[in-house]
Amino acid sequence: MKYQLLILLGLLSMAARSQSPTFSVTFPLSKSVKPLDGRVLLILAKTDKPEPRSQVSDAVETAQLFGVDVNELKPGQAATVDASAFGYPKRSLKNIAPGDYYVQAVLHKYETFKRSDGHTVKLPMDRGEGQNWRTAPGNLFSKAQKISIKAGGGQSFAVVMDQENPVLPLPKDTKFIKHIRIQSKRLTEFWGRPMFVGAHVLLPAGFDEHPDAHFPLCIYHGHFPDDFAGFSETPPPANMDTTDYIERFKLHGYKKIVAQEAYDFYKKWTSKEFPRMLIVEIQHANPYYDDSYAVNSENLGPYGDAIMYELLPEIENQFRGIGQGWARFTYGGSTGGWEALAVQVLYPDEFNGCFAACPDPITFDAYTNFNLYKDKNAYYAEGPFRRTPRPGQRNYLGQVKCTVEQSNHRELAIGTHSRSGDQFDIWEAVYSPVGADGYPKRIWNKLTGEIDTTVANYWREHYDLMHILRRDWKTLGPKVAGKIHIYCGDMDNYYLNNAVYLMEDFLKSVQNPVANSEVAYGDRAEHCWNGDPTQPNYISRLRYNTMYVDKIMKRIEESAPQGADLKSWRY
């Protein structure tokens, strides 16, 4: 009997220790009288500076995150975050060690969309912030509060989301920078509600003084721009604070360097020698990401056509673009690098050259550092007796920051159904077919990494840019020869150089016609190297709008059709 009692006490003690804390998360009636849909995100951090919600990342210092979906959550009704909630980097609340923490909760709001394909889905519509759950206007959140989790578990904590992210101001027009926003007929029809695309347009010097001039157009693709960046009519103050430090470049005072580069660009832009043109940054944030990847997609809708056949004509009509393919060029880095090459490949007659820097994987034979078609698992290289985690990010020395699995589990904690608004999820949302539930078909099991070969085959035929070029070279080759320029650091943080190597081999091999392309690498250069070996990358990455100009002008001179306007804009 004595031993049975000891065993029972031991089991009870183990049960007590296995109990996890429970969090009851609510919002007050003052923040919404209506029930809300979305995802409740609960963050635990060891410090409240910055706020816990700003500490979630792929870095080893990340805060802890848990997420639960809520549907029609009423004011005052509790969303429960307990041991069953999926977490990152710790999988469950039961794995959280006793100690002091700062806790904060966020409600990332979802809207209901009744799409034209017959599916009804709940997604977080962008609200002018560039698809960011931390700052999205209207999202509710709590102030960080200090708690103490004790050994033995079983504690309950109440968290009230009584704060709300404010509406963001719209950018204002200046002499040189104009803003345009149109409702897209194509996207509105697809999404079943008004949908808009927009752009920030940098006008050339002398635009008003030369009303008869028409201009070439360059699209600078990239992530969501809240305004046209990197252009300033005033120099930085001489006494500007230079105590800021950017770890990536090991530099103090980088903000002043950025400000000086913006002013230097203004001086070049307005100089007599600089060619007069329009530079456009597109705003196409959507319910899945901060931009659409500028292509048509089963899940996102016809963004490629909306941009190409609705937005660009409006821009060229308003701001006197030449409006012909020989006078359009495109460039960008990372997401923008993929987009630059993609629109050149998918709309080959509409552009006369692309400059793709550090592009997202341009062939899925090297989907970062694994083969999407031949490997069985995205998270592990698997042998008969061992599984090796795949690295997800590295520095120029090859030191690993996180694994592919860790990044994907962070996304899964932020949002189910590809709704994290982050990198792997947007690739999935753009490239995948629609699933039976209306959300993107998973390219792999988000928990385990097991790859779905059927979905991978769909990706290949629709968005693998090297495969498309190879498959269709007989018809595509004559339209893109001489137009493709690709640049990448050979120590890209996300292993994007691997796909570039394969693309380079392909472009060198093709005949009838030869590709006449350019591929260059930065020695030991990390992500965002964009083709200038004479400057450190912390400088060259700020010069996208000037570094390809000479090549653009040469291409125009070589390829403009007879009778083309080569003079009105060269004042």
TrEMBL record:
Keywords: Signal
Ion transport as UniProt keyword: no
Signal peptide region: 1-18
Protein name, entry field: Esterase
Keyword Signal among UniProt keywords: yes
InterPro entries: AB_hydrolase_fold (IPR029058), Mycobacterial_A85_antigen (IPR050583)
